[in-house]
Design goal:
- This protein is mainly beta.
- It has a single domain, classed as Cupredoxins -  blue copper proteins (Immunoglobulin-like).
- Strands 1, 2, 3, 5 and 7 form a 5-stranded mixed β-sheet that branches. The protein has a 4-stranded mixed β-sheet with strand order 4-9-8-6. Strands 10-11 form a two-stranded antiparallel sheet.
- The longest helix is centred in the last third of the chain and has 7 residues.
- The protein starts with 19 loop residues before the first strand and ends in a 6-residue tail after the last helix.
- Bound molecules: copper (II) ion.
- Copper (II) ion binds next to strand 6.
Length: about 220
C-alpha cells in the first residue's frame, strides 16, 4: 500500500550537546538504543535502533581542528530484530548483535576508524579482534564537510544501518563561513534512505532463504 507523499513535516535531527568541554577537548557519549519511532503518520511506530534512541542520530557539529572524543556505547538487545545471515563472513561464530561506529570521510587514526572487526557487544562484554578503545578520537584536521557516522560491524553492517544506526557529523571552518551559505534554520541536512515497511510499521527486508550458492551472491552484497 503506497504511503501519502509529502504528508509529514521533514524531521530535522537536533545538534548534540557535549557531555564535557574545555579548551583542549569536546567529549560526547552516544548510546545505541532500541526504541520505536514514527517514520510516517500513516504507519504504526517503527521499531528502530538509534544513536541516543533517534533515527537519524543526533548531529555532531565540530570545528576544524577541534579535538572531539566520543564514547560509543552499545545498549542493544542480544537478538537482532532483522534477519541475520549466519553464512556471511563475520556473522558465523560471533555474537549476533555487534556494533562499531565508522565516521565516513573522517581523517582518524586506525584505532578510532571503526574497523569492521573492532566490534563490541553490549557493555563491551565481547569485542572483535581489532577492538582497541571504547572512546574514539576525532582530531578534525580537515576542511568543512558534511560527514556521516554509521555502524560498520562485519557481516551485519547493512542490517544495523537499516535498523537506524546512522547520523550526521558536520565539520565547520572559517572558509565555509565566508561563503555566506544558508545557515541556521535555512541549512537543512537531508538523508535519503530506501525503506520498505510491513503494515505493522516494522521495517521489511527481503531474505532469500532458498539460495543455493551463497558464495556467488556474497560479493554482490553492499557490505
Ligand atoms: Cu561509510
Amino acid at each position: 500500500m503506497p504511503l501519502t507523499k509529502f504528508k509529514d513535516k521533514l524531521p530535522i535531527p537536533g545538534i548534540l550537546k557535549p557531555k564535557y568541554q574545555d579548551k583542549q577537548i569536546t567529549y560526547y557519549e552516544i548510546k545505541m538504543i532500541q526504541t520505536t519511532q514514527s517514520l510516517h503518520s500513516e504507519l504504526p511506530d517503527t521499531l528502530i535502533w538509534g544513536y541516543n534512541g533517534t533515527y537519524p542520530g543526533p548531529v555532531i557539529e565540530a570545528w576544524k581542528d577541534e579535538k572531539v572524543l566520543i564514547k560509543w556505547q552499545n545498549e542493544l538487545p542480544a537478538k537482532h530484530f532483522l534477519p541475520v545471515d549466519k553464512t556471511l563472513h563475520g556473522a558465523m561464530d560471533a555474537p549476533e548483535v555487534r556494533t562499531v561506529t565508522h565516521l565516513h570521510g573522517a581523517k582518524v587514526k586506525p584505532e578510532s576508524d571503526g574497523y569492521p572487526e573492532a566490534w563490541f557487544t553490549k557493555d563491551y562484554k565481547e569485542t572483535g579482534p581489532s577492538f582497541a578503545h571504547q572512546t574514539y578520537c576525532y582530531p578534525n584536521h580537515q576542511h568543512a564537510a558534511t560527514l556521516w557516522y554509521h555502524d560498520h560491524a562485519l557481516g551485519i553492517t547493512r542490517l544495523n544501518v537499516y535498523a537506524g544506526l546512522a547520523g550526521f557529523y558536520l565539520i565547520r571552518d572559517k572558509f565555509e563561513k565566508v561563503l555566506d551559505l544558508p545557515e541556521g534554520e535555512y541549512e537543512i541536512p537531508l538523508l535519503i534512505q530506501d525503506r520498505s515497511f510491513n503494515s505493522d510499521g516494522y521495517c521489511s527486508i527481503p531474505v532469500n532463504r532458498n539460495r543455493r550458492f551463497p558464495a556467488l551472491i556474497r560479493p554482490l552484497l553492499p557490505e
